[in-house]
Amino acid sequence: MHFSSTLNRFGDEVFAALNERRIALEKEGRTFYNLSIGTPDFVPSKRVRTALAEAAQDPENWKYALRDTDEMLQAVCRYYEKRFSVSITPDMIASCYGSQEGIGHLGMTLCDPGDVVLLPSPCYPVFIAGAKMAGAQIHYYPLSPEKHFLPDLDAIPADVARAARYMIVSLPSNPTGSVGDDATYEGLIAFAKKYDILLVHDNAYSDIIYDGIEGGSFLHYEGARDVGVEFFSLSKSFNLTGARISFLIGRPDVVAAFRKLRSQIDFGMFLPLQKVAIAALETDRAEVQAQCAAYQARRDALCDGLTGIGWPVRRNQGSMFVWAKIPVAGMSSMDFCLALMDRAGVICTPGASFGPAGEGYVRFALVLPPDRIQEAVEQIRKSGILA
Ligand SMILES: Cc1ncc(COP(=O)(O)O)c(C=O)c1O
Predict the structure, then answer these.
(1) Nearest-CA residue for atom 13 of ligand 1
(2) Whose CA is nearest to atom 7 of ligand 1?
């Protein structure tokens, strides 16, 4: 059987070993603290669930949608105005099945094979997959602890910047938990203008941001709408990960091109899900803020807990992830994760899954309540793995 050469651009599932080991240990009846999955344990609101159930009763809603309804597009416009003070119009919005799918198709919208794209390292894996599917050449720009895990534009050679088609920036960052400030975004916009690069802001965690920092939209910054677009996912703010709802928002020419590509393979978002999106976007902000406070308590329990037992971990400022340097010299992130699972029953994700700069780190997801996180920390202490 012949398979496409595109497939050869993707590595083997090296992390299958972690899963296999977990399944084997579960069969032995071991208890686990699973801090590896990036899907919230919080639930979607009753309003959202009701919207889905009601919309599903109408047989008309089971037909091909073919388009984003005006009702949904207006709800997105209202949300951007109210939440981010950003005025947008329907021609600046295209729905997609999660930012994952959207980013997966973005490379094919913007690049020819061999074109250069700029990606953060470490980064969320679909940034890499989307560029590879387009046959693009990836240049990683560093997110390093010395620069607070923020884009280091000086590290990008001018000839690479000149050749780049698009650059993905995602703050608050998965996996590093870093958050950009005004200077970060202003610097990025100036850089994109100077080198004529399309800036793609992946905004998945605007509502999971701590210590009083206000999450926002990149499109709020002056000049942003000339040089960029933003993926705005409903997955994490409203606990809708399985529903697959996100929007590409910004420059109408980019949005139109993205729609054109997707319309070749897609008949539009299931109409009941469009109703779900509207209901979610109308959620009372206080609910979202209460959830953010709950994440912050988890963040404190994990970062302070680990630091307290001799594993210094800085408090992340945003996202539902904690990025921790491996406390044992000479161990790969994969081996450390296997050891942590075996010895402490705590499951986290090897840093190597987030691109070349991820090695040497592990990522914890804040998907258990603080008391369970404290128990996990205690298991790590008792395991002696830090000794
Ligand atoms: C940075 C980042 N971008 C995109 C996604 C995917 O989001 P969606 O559920 O909208 O596909 C995630 C999910 O964890 C993420 O962390």
Answers:
(1) 38
(2) 99
**Encoded tokens for 350:** 């090897």
* Topology annotation, domain 46-283: Aspartate Aminotransferase; domain 2 (3.40.640)
Contacts of 181 (CB under 8 A, 6+ apart): none
Ligand 1: residues within 6 Å at CB?
A: 38, 98-100, 124, 170, 174, 202, 204, 233, 235, 241, 246
Distance 12 CA to ligand 1 centre (A): 22
Residue ranges of domains in the chain: 5-43+286-383, 46-283
Distance of CA 358 to the CA centre of its chain: 15
CA of 204 to the centre of ligand 1 (A): 6
Check if 5-43+286-383 and 46-283 are the same fold.
no
Domain spanning 5-43+286-383 has what CATH number?
A: 3.90.1150.10
pTM of the model: 0.96
* CA 358 to ligand 1 center in whole angstroms: 18
pLDDT averaged per 10 residues in sequence order, the chain, 387 residues: 90 75 86 90 97 98 98 98 98 98 97 97 96 96 96 97 98 97 97 98 98 96 97 98 98 98 97 98 96 98 98 97 95 94 95 92 97 98 93
Give whole-number Cα distances, 309 to 132, 192, 301, 370, in Å. Answer: 41, 43, 12, 16
